[in-house]
Amino acid sequence: MRGDLISLNARAGEVALELLAWDKYRTTEDRDPADALEIEGLIERGAACFGRVLSTIHGGREIQSPRESDEWLKESRVRWSGRPEMTEKGTFLGGRKLRVTEADIARLDRVHPDRSFSATTTPRDGENDTHSAAATDLAGQLERLGALRTEGVLSEEEFRAAKARVLGTARPPAAG
User: Fold this and answer.
1) What does the buried/exposed string (b/e) look like for 90-104 if buried means 16 or more CB atoms within 10 Å of the residue's CB?
2) How far, in whole angstroms, is CA 123 from its chain's centroid?
3) CA torsion, ordered 103, 107, 113, 118, to nearest 10 deg
4) In the prediction, which pLDDT does 173 show?
5) 100 with 5: CB under 8 angstroms?
6) Does any domain span residue 147?
7) Sequence-distant contacts of 122-128: CB under 8 A, at least 24 apart
8) What pLDDT does 19 receive?
9) Measuring CA to CA, how many Å separate 74 from each of 70, 112, 158?
10) Rounded Cα–Cα distance for residues 121 and 143 (Å)
11) Cβ atoms of 20 and 104 closer than 8 Å
12) Residue range(s) defining the domain that contains residue 87
């Protein structure tokens, strides 16, 4: 079980970085409308895949085969490999690799990596102190959980359990 969770966390990281790069691409590049629609579809499928992996990691779903995420990652890699603006020189033996900078990673939305660049969040006056930032982060986490429930990624029961964990009100299971 522990090995499965480690593998799922690694998979979630891979999918998140791919989604981060695609979100950056869609917000910085001019594309023809047909390409934009294809990219939106790819991102939408990847976000759903990421949500299911994330839900599994956090105990909301049974551990499933990585086939879905394997297929999405393969499609994503085929698509970005032909886009020089998204790639950089790889390792000595490898070809090109996905370009993700430290600044990109700093923007990563860990629940919705597909919105890391496209989300329109700008801090308001007075939101720079630690208390406001923590409250904003808590509200953001709750909003993301609500979105996962609305999208059908989380059931009502999974949503309530995750919300309790976020709010710190989760109770251990009753001994029985």
Assistant:
1) eeeeeebebbbeeeb
2) 22
3) -110
4) 47
5) no
6) no
7) none
8) 95
9) 6, 20, 29
10) 13
11) yes
12) 2-123
What average pLDDT does this structure show over 80-105? Answer: 86
Cα distances (angstroms) measured from residue 83 to each of 73, 161, 173? 16, 41, 50
CB-CB contact of 90 with 96 (8 Å) = yes
pTM of the model: 0.64
Give a yes or no: residue 134 inside a domain.
no
Beta bridge partners of 96: 89
- The verdict on residue 133 lying in a domain is no
Residue 45: DSSP 8-state: H
Tally of domains in the chain: 1
51 C-beta neighbours (distance < 10 Å), count: 24
87 in a structural domain? yes
110, two tokens: 């860990």
